[in-house]
Amino acid sequence: MPEFYQYLSAAQEQELASIAQQIVQPGKGILAADESTGTIVCNDRKISDHISGVILYHETFFQKADDGQSFVNKLKNLGIVPGIKVDKGVVPLAGTDDECTTQGLDGLAERCAEYKKEGAGFAKWRCVLKIKSHGPSHQAMIENANVLARYASICQQNGLVPIVEPEVLPDGDHDLETARQVTEQVLSYTYKALMEHHVYLEGTLLKPNMVTAGQSCTKSYTAKDVAKATVTALQRTVPAAVPGVTFLSGGQSEEDASLNLSAINQFPGKKPWALTFSYGRALQSSVLKAWAGKKENISSAQVELLNRAEANGKAALGTYGGGVKSSAASDSNFVAQHAY
Ligand SMILES: O=P(O)(O)OC[C@@]1(O)O[C@H](CO)[C@@H](O)[C@@H]1O
After folding, report:
1. Per-residue model confidence (pLDDT) at position 37
2. ipTM of this predicted complex?
3. Nearest-angstrom CA–CA distance, 314 and 327
4. Nearest of 191, 241, 190, 232 to residue 211 by alpha carbon
5. Distances in Å between the alpha carbon of 231 and those of 126, 133, 155, 292, 313?
6. Which residue has the CA at smallest separation from atom 16 of ligand 1?
């Protein structure tokens, strides 16, 4: 008989599953504000109609807003789950063709325990994979899958839902088929490692790239093509026990990210997980453009945030048909080799 050791108690499992479910309620998703300061935390209760979680980074997590209230408490009062980016960035993987891994495991358990005590409900850790003529390599896929699994296990031991983010970058001229095949490979390595580390899948969320052609691919594809490739890749690799898939926006324009998410939700076929957003750039470019760092622009920037949040909330239900007015809706958000 194989022997299994206890990984989590039933109460720990229940807590993690319920946080994950709260984040992926129908029509809601995550604002990834772990890259930009404050992203103008909005006081308008309407924001929580479409946003269920916000990812902060260490400094903002412990900061207070102008009224003296901490960002974390502000979010909780709005019914939004505060999240925290816990990785310490992308570093080179020696012996590969410019591939990388992500560091930050040292001291992670202690940091997670502290974030939990201060009100965090979930965490995120981003790994980056690159499409090349001979890549991503086995070395990069196995290393990134393992580091994601160790991170996920440490988070769960400390009561935080891990968002597992293996991002296949859009850099390159590869077509949609190639992006789909690589995404399938990367996700299958990822779930093998999560299973090997006993990660409780019901208490996790996946944050993958949508399957899109390379940024400099000469062929063009419709939102329906992207939806088909993305849903196919997920069906083949993501266990049904995972409660939700919260896509990153990966340099798509705000409008493309919303239209593609809506098409993904409309796409027929088996989709046992919630399919929603955890956008950084695609929820912030209009906001940051309108704000321009000036106090007098804060209310118009907040309107931009509400508009994009509403568009993506609809997209998460498959009912966004386009047309929400935003000042940077069709601007490209592509950043080459986005390795932040
Ligand atoms: O691709 P996007 O939607 O802009 O950002 C996705 C994301 O995971 O990547 C960024 C860099 O780590 C984070 O700020 C953000 O959470």
Report:
1. 55
2. 0.92
3. 19
4. 232
5. 21, 25, 28, 37, 19
6. 32
Instruction: Assign residue 89 the CATH number of its domain.
Output: 3.20.20.70
- Segment 226-263, tens digit of pLDDT: 999 999 999 999 999 999 999 999 999 999 999 999 99
Separation in Å, CA 112 to CA 41, 154, 276, 296: 23, 8, 25, 37
DSSP structural state of residue 274:
E
Residue 224 near residue 203, CB atoms below 8 Å: no
Residue 323 lies in a domain: no
Mean pLDDT of 87-104: 97
Q: Whole domain around residue 260: which residue ranges? A: 10-317
Banded pLDDT at 218 (limits 50, 70, 90): very high
CB atoms within 10 A of CB 297: 16
Q: Is residue 324 part of a domain?
A: no
Whether residue 330 lies inside any domain: the answer is no
Q: Which of 28, 74, 99, 165 is catalytic?
A: 165
Question: How far is C-alpha 267 from the geometric centre of its chain's CA atoms?
Answer: 21
pTM of the model: 0.96
Q: At residue 194, what is the residue type?
A: L
Cα separation of the two ends of the chain: 46
Q: What is the mean pLDDT of the chain?
A: 94
Residue 185 lies in a domain: yes
Measured in Å, residue 126 CA sits from the centre of ligand 1 at 8
Instruction: Ligand 1 pocket test: pick from 86, 126, 252 the residue with the most ligand atoms within 8 Å of its Cβ.
Output: 126
Q: What's the DSSP call for residue 165?
A: E
What is the pLDDT averaged over residues 288-315? 94
Query: Which whole number is the average pLDDT over 258-285?
Result: 97
Task: Identify the three-state secondary structure at position 203.
Answer: helix
Select from 127, 281, 283, 335 the residue to mutate for testing ligand 1; criterion: most ligand atoms less than 8 Å from CB: 281
Q: Is 87 helix (H, G, I), strand (E, B) or coil?
A: coil
d(CA 203, CA 155): 10
Please state, in angstroms and rounded to a whole number, the distance separating the CA atoms of residues 103 and 127. Answer: 9
State yes or no: is 165 an active-site residue: yes
